[in-house]
Queue: 3 jobs
Job 1
Amino acid sequence: MDIQLTSLHWVYLAFIVFILALLVRRRDTTLICVVGIFTIGVIATETLSGSVSGIFNSFIYATKELLGTIFIISIIVAMSRVLIITGINEMMVAPLTRFMRTPTMAFWGIGLIMLVTSLFFWPSPGVALIGAVLLPVAARVGLPALGAAMAMNLFGHGIALSGDYIIQGAPKLTADAAGLPVSRVMEASVPLVIVMGLVTTVLAFWFMRRDMKRGTWRDGLVAADRGTSDIGGSSSGIAVVLSASLKKTLAIAIGLAFIADVIAMFALDLQGGDATALIGGTAVIILMIVTLIAHRNKGLEETTSYLIEGFQFGFRVFGPVIPIAAFFYLGDAAFGEIFAKGLAEGSHGIVNDLGVAFANSVPVNNGVAAATLTVTGAITGLDGSGFSGISLVGPIAHMFAVAIHSGAATLTALGQVAAIWVGGGTLIPWALIPAAAICGVSPFELARRNLKPVLIGLAVTTIVAMFLV
């Protein structure tokens, strides 16, 4: 099938290349994405009013697509905040601390607890939920603070966030951008997340033990006191001190509630938005119950305060994502809804057209496709968000999948894994602040320790993906 590329296609492609170049130089891409939307609007509508209106309409489109993800993250953070203030989080992880008797057990124990916690609460709230409780335990058995930060970081912001199988924020973004069902991207990501997680954590632990034996280990401590991560603003009103028995009861009930959610997901075959809604609704109920118990007669007002803190966090994280997603959504279904004209009859969207043209003119194979998606995902993560760039890997994965006639889900998942591991909080210093702050270590030292394991992990995962495409 021959596709006639127009100036619209070439301008869109040029902006993608320009955005990638800016990301490599660690510059913000929001302004360029807005200029890209405006330029595409001028070409498509040939009117100033249509192109200007297209900017706002594309923002609305992107916000509607992202709203579920923004809400679930905000609600989880709000709930996490009240659990931290009441001390229920300590009760939730306390039984697990008895298994940490050696530095090795502490490293893997903290990592696995962080993994499970992050799947339900997202990594940044998860760091605050468990870090303050587990760090003193790890220190007592000889695990350095930087080692604890590595474990929380790699398992939480790496493994848990790159898969995001419970909240499903990351796969929703990439799947939508690639025009695929969320379930397909999640299934395709499982072997990649496992390989990346195993290679990276095993190497990080081995390098840590080797350097400790050689005497070359640097702990990177920067402060004696440790705060909580930036999961919200200042605390709400003073909570009533809960008895140990009540905190234990609530901790067990909360754990059982989320376990019931997971069981319901499998029993009722809930995926994507339905699964997210179940988790979100459960979190809201927990937030209300715990707040009413903890704040008594001020519970009504404090519930609102916690929600405000959660939404402030959610929109602060996703604010930069909306303009970027708005631009990349134009590569597919959003274009026809926003501009209605500009593409030739028979066109299947800008990205699809580019993919077909690419297949007809450039020799592409599985190895080139997989390597390109890894590099693209890693580059988009250089802004330190992880989420702001994964809307880009979907269209690019789609282009390559069209070119090689297979592997759309695997390539999309590979780009997602690379973007989250680099930008979600394992390599970029300013994205490492939550884990570094709670452990009192330098985020730059933490990034340095993570660098080699993560890069090797990405290389191995890319090779595996070549055989899966």
Note: Confidence is low (pLDDT under 50) at residues 223-234.
Job 2
Amino acid sequence: MAHLLLLEAPGGNDFDILQAALAVGHEVTFFTADLAHYQRNGSLEAYLSRARAVIEIQPFSYAAFEKSAAAIHGETPFDGILCLIDIRIIEAAALAERLGLRFLNPQTATLLRDKYRVRCALAERGIAQPDFALATHNGELRNAVSDLGLPVIVKPCDGYGSQNITMLLTDDDINPLIDPLDHYLPCRTDYGLGVTANDRLLVERYIEGTLIGCDTLTLDGKHVMLGINEKSMFPPPFGAIQGSCFPSDRFDVAPVREYVFAVLDAVGFNDGASHTEIILSAEGPLLVEVNPRLVGAKIPRLLNLAFGRSVHRDLIDLHLGIPPSAAAYRKPDGYAVSRWIVAERAGTLADIRLPQTPDRRIKQVEILKTPGDAVTPPYQNSDRIGCVMALAETRAQAEQCANAYVSQVELAVI
């Protein structure tokens, strides 16, 4: 069995990768910049008590991280490094190179943490994408919006998890009496774990179409596409994802696969998991963003349900040099659908009551907030309260089942 280094966990509470590692007998040493970040979510004792060691580096710096990891490596060598959170991908890549372990190369890791630089790299390769511009201050932002023309999307170049995305669709959205553009920066958004936004903004043309996610596993530059995950959004003005369906049966996979692989090759993606979001537009597939890690928001659980296998375990194997099996990902067992539970108004969550006799096709229910927590309508993904997942023979059956469950959830908000 292997000794694995796990650097942080998504969302402060998603330890699926740790569970997968422990289930097959691997040892895991967990590194974090903030133990309290996980304690606030109530997950520390339940999950990390089974880790070989828990190391806190606070304040976090790469030098301190490397020194501590190298010392452990000298006594009990690491066989692999895992990191599923964007804001630590660069450090994980640098340490992997330092220790001679398989991971995404540092150059690509650094590139993928800047959405504007990614756009430039794709433009040099002639890959189709929305028109775009960079804004580092409010004057540049206003000029970029004017040059591109409405509608546009504004997002942080170093953002992740659908955070702090602004849609400017009509002239009302840039009303000079409100001055949204003149007071946009600085914002210095706190991403947690001691990381704040660098206030570089990507402005890009808003494209009508269907939002999909494509998840891949890559070993030595050879990509295996796991399939198309179709996402549904809450209606405007809300910006959070309402749910997902995997696999999607509405689109031809071949041109999407070709486009995704071209994007990954253009940025030099050599090893690891990637999650590429695409708008299927009238012009064909167009990139939203490419993320150098396994998809978040519990979506890997949908893949696990649909395929009847652990994507997390396959990712661990990949980092240990074991090739992913393309054959294993060709035919899912069924359709897996997720739907998120949200509040209709802002306030404090007083109580949540779940259906007592759920449909047998409901496979997972997870509640992320507890009574006493502040709640708000789903302006961004972090506003969601809980998730339900259903598995059925057809997509329609799975969607009906998940929607019915959510409709029966009773929330008391005061």
Note: The longest helix spans residues 62-75.
Job 3
Amino acid sequence: MAERTLSGCHILVAEDEFLIADDLRIELGEADAVVVGPVGTLREALEMARSERRIDGAILDVNLGGDLAYPVADILIERRIPLIFTTGYDGGALPTRFATVARCEKPTTITRIAQAIGRVIHRE
């Protein structure tokens, strides 16, 4: 599924765990997506969310090195960019303004994350 739906899509990846970020970069690249980043800090993610001209979707780890990624999500939502959260937090712990944002609860697989971002980009 990811191979078909992500071709040519520019995906922002904000993930502070290097191995997960690298695995996402590889999986998305194999699906012919263009990876924006990956970035591992809130500061970098904010900069990308504000300045990157083309982002078709975003994968945000809720916790970026101890900083919550909510300000990045707010910018992306304002820009009408589909996103998913990856998180080890209980879904109830997220602010209610993000109740409709898709999430992948950790632990999960890189393939499931790639499929989830494909679904939100194409509103499946």
Note: The radius of gyration is 13 Å.
